[in-house]
Structure formats: structure tokens, C-alpha cells
Amino acid sequence: MKLKTYTAPTYTEALNKIKAELGDDVVIVSSKEIKKKTLTSPGLYEVVVAVEEETPVKKKTSKKDDFDVDEVMLRLSTAAKEIDSTIGNREKKSFNSYKESEYKKPNPLKPQNDEIEELKKEFNKLADTLKFLQAAIWEMAHKDELELPPEFSEIYALSRASGMNPKHLDEIMKLTIKYMPLKMRKNRDAIKRYFHTLLKKMIPIRMEREIKPPHKKIMMFVGPTGVGKTTTIAKLAARYAYKLPHRHKVGIITLDTYRIGAVEQLMTYAKMMKLPIETVVDPSDFEEALNVLRHNDYILIDTVGSSQHDKEKIEKLNSFLKVDSFAEINVNLVLSAVTKYEDLTDIYNNFSILPIDTFVFTKLDETRTYGNIFSLLLDTKKPISYLSMGQEVPDDLTVADADYIIRGILSKELN
Ligand SMILES: Nc1nc2c(ncn2[C@@H]2O[C@H](COP(=O)(O)OP(=O)(O)O)[C@@H](O)[C@H]2O)c(=O)[nH]1
Ligand SMILES: [Mg+2]
């Protein structure tokens, strides 16, 4: 049994449509008037019918009919007109740039009566739905392979808007549609929860494991300029030295001696935390610095930021990795959540001449959409270890949390 929704300007017209398409043997599940007819615009009725899966569909022109693009389009354009006329003088924006809070702004024209107030609420709700439907329909219009049941349109549109790679999304959608228990499909909340769990399973997390002596951990932080490498190192140094259940000895090495002020930046943090710091210019100094700091449990290495296209600088980091050290040097690629998926991929590809072990994502406070992070993790199968969500040292850092990332994919608070 499958539910199909039909809309038309009148109830009779909706019924005629249903009969023309499905014949007489249909069960009407519900019918309602969505919009009253006015002098200037037609009304809108919605009729939901239950159809046996094997009911022959009399008139089927394309795969997309399952989704009833025409129907939703009709609804969309009607709703769009309504919203335009009600919200009238307000500056016109694309629907994607609407923010939840803006819907609640009082209209400068005082409402005449409760009816208008009620209508406005309805329109606001419609605008919200519209935003997601619009994205979903746009996608549908551009592809034939994916038959997206209407109940999936919200998670599809949210994920799409989150910066996820569309190919990943299509694949995941196909699997979701294929494997989700039938019962669950009619309930949007259940679909969302199912999808959340599915995405969560796909995020590789590198759990934080406290080092126990005599083990030691050497961590090098690489990545583009300005992503937050130095800030993250300061936060992690404080975490390992003062915030974990056991206090650890932490040493810092900086290879970032090119930029004026870069050394001072880290020196200041190290001084405040009373942690040893070594400054290194070439690989032979590096070996020595590691030796000087060898009594520490953690050694954190800051590097000069490089554009992903500056192969020479990235290669130079490789020469540091080749020195003799008492423990393996663990390479962490630091990336900003604000960077779009295509650029993250480009950065990763260029930095992957280094043996990247883990990702650290910063600036999660500067965006609410994390689909780009998800897709990079899915492509590379590399785990994520820490998340930074602000400039405050040491507080704005947490261990990686898959739920947090997924909420940034399925949340309605779009930027
Ligand atoms: N909003 C925000 N800013 C951050 C975050 N991490 C670092 N920053 C800021 O980004 C700027 C560059 O940071 P820095 O650590 O010097 O970057 P680096 O060049 O990679 O070492 C500084 O102003 C930091 O305060 C973060 O998680 N959120
Ligand atoms: Mg730096």
C-alpha cells in the first residue's frame, strides 16, 4: 500500500485527476482545503489516496511522476504567490536566504484581524516547507536515476544544502530508500532519525586515548594558512597538560619561523602554560629539538601554513618527517569547516603527499552546515579526532563527535 497526494483547484478536479490516473478503485485517505479560492487566485485542494503497489497506473509519462513534480510545482507557485502578496513590501530574497527568525518579525502593517494573523502563520509555515521542497524539486528536475518518495524530500534537501557531495547523497538516498523498513517510511521523524543513524555510522572517529608512560605521542599539525593550527595546538597543549584526568608533560616545537609574529604567538601560549618550546628551521635542528623534548608525553609540532598548491613547502614538511625520532610522528591535517567540499578535496589531495593520519576541523562556529566535512571523511576514510568551535584557548575544542556533525547536516538552521 502506498499513499499518493493529489492537488487541484477544486475537490472535484482533484478526484477527476485521480480517476484518470488510477481508475475507480482507490481509497481516499484524507482530503482538505489548503487554500480558499479568492477573487484573484484559485483555491487549492489536497486529496491523499491509498494505492495498492501493483495498481496499474494508467497514465505514466516519466519516472518522475511518482514524485508528482507537477503537483508540487502547482502548490509551490500558488504558495509563492501567496507569500509574495502577504509579505508584500519586504525586500525580496531567494528562499535559501530566509532565516527562521525572520519569519517571526512583526509585519510593520498592523494586522487587521485574527484571520490575517492566522493566514500569516500558515504562510510562514509554507515558506519554510517551500524552501526545502524547492531544493528537492530542483534536484529531481535534474536527474532521472533517483526516484525520491516525497517523504524523503526534507532530508534530501537539507543534506543537499549542507554542502554534501551530491553523488554521495544520491547513493545514500538510494540505499536508504532500499533498506528502510516500509513501516517507517510514512513518518518523516522516523525517516530523519534513521538517516541520522545511517550517516553517523559513516563518520570515522579517532577516539582520544590518553598516553600512558612509557608511551609517547608526537603530533604534527599541517594545513593551509589561517585555518587555526597554532590556536588548536595551544588548546591541545592545555588539554593534555591540565585538563585531562591525568596531567601530562607536553612540549611544543614550531617549524613556523617564516612569518613575523608566528613564533611569538606560540611562545606566548607556551609561556603562559609553562611548557617548553623549541624553534626549528631545518631538519637537523628538528632531530635535536625532538631529543631535547624527549622526556615529554606529548610533543606538538606547529608548521608553517601552506597553500595547497605550494608543493615545495609541503614537500619540505616531508623531509622533517624522515628524521630519526623516538616515536612515530603522527600527521594531523587541520581544515576549516567553512571551506567548501571541492576545496577540501583539493587541499587533501595536495597534502596527501604527507602520511595524513587524522583530520582536525576548526571554525565549526562559523558555519552551521557540515555536509562538506562528512563528504571528505567519506571519500578519504580517514578519521577525525578533534573539533574546534571558537577562538577561545583552551575552551573551544572538543573531541570529535559524529552527532554534532550530523546535526550540522540535518538541521534546518541553514546559513
Ligand atoms: N571562529 C573561529 N576562529 C578560529 C578557530 N580556530 C582558530 N581561529 C582563528 O583563526 C585565526 C587563525 O588562527 P591560527 O591558529 O593563527 O591559524 P594558523 O595559521 O593555521 O596557525 C585566528 O584569529 C584564530 O583565533 C575556530 O575554531 N573558530
Ligand atoms: Mg600558525
The rounded Rg comes to 28 Å
- Domain count: the total is 2
Weakly predicted, low-confidence segments:
55-69, 75-106
CATH superfamily of the largest domain: P-loop containing nucleotide triphosphate hydrolases
Choose one word for the global shape: elongated
Which percent band covers the strand fraction? Answer: 15-25%
Identify the strand order in the major beta sheet: 6-5-7-4-8-9-10-11
Structural class: alpha/beta
DSSP helix fraction = 40-55%
**What is the level 1 CATH name of the largest domain?**
Alpha Beta
CATH second-level architecture of the largest domain: 3-Layer(aba) Sandwich
Small-molecule binders here are:
guanosine-5'-diphosphate, magnesium ion
Protein traits:
415 residues; alpha/beta; Rossmann fold; eight-stranded mixed β-sheet; 14 helices; 11 strands; elongated; binds guanosine-5'-diphosphate; binds magnesium ion
Note down, in words, how this protein is organized.
- It is built from 14 helices and eleven strands.
- The chain has 415 residues and is of the alpha/beta class.
- It has two domains: 61-201, no CATH class; 217-401, 3-Layer(aba) Sandwich (Rossmann fold), CATH 3.40.50.
- It has an eight-stranded mixed β-sheet with strand order 6-5-7-4-8-9-10-11, with helices on both faces. Strands 1-3-2 form a three-stranded antiparallel β-sheet.
- Helix 12 links the parallel strand 8 (329-336) and strand 9.
- Helix 4 (114-141) packs across helix 5 (153-161) and helix 7 crosses helix 14.
- The longest helix is centred in the first third of the chain and has 28 residues, at 114-141.
- The chain is elongated, with a radius of gyration of 28 Å.
